[in-house]
Amino acid sequence: xxxxxxxxxxxxxxxAWWLWxxxxxSFALLILAVVPAIRLxxxxxxxxxxxxxxxxxxxxxxxxxxxYPPLTHVIAKYxxxxxxxxxxxxxxxxxxxxxxxxxxxxxxxxALAAFIGWLTTHFDTTFDEATTKKERAKYQRLRHGTQKxxxxxxxxxxxxxx
Length: 162
Description:
mainly alpha
């Protein structure tokens, strides 16, 4: 360790309930931004985002090593870039297109933005070998977790052990 450098603190395992809460808050904000039947005007959505999303994100940023991370850390740890970037770009564009009144086809703007997100991550990981290895590991964990989940569902439906 360099003279005067602080020791690196280990990251605590993430709390499962916090991860589920992130999913719930994110899903609710997405639905309230893009589903026409319940879409909120931007200012109402922004208040909800500040309360729901902002409070959780602020906590995670202020306490970087506890079990309650900001959403950016959760996404970086669990979601492959090739899924995260297109989703983030696409959902942001879909919401923006709705609020800015780009009708009748805001989904086309969302699809274009999602494609740009995919291009960004595709070329980003192509030129960075260390990142490519991390992304492959995420896909392997995702594949393994999905297979285990389907095996559990199948065993419950058929009554056979997993």
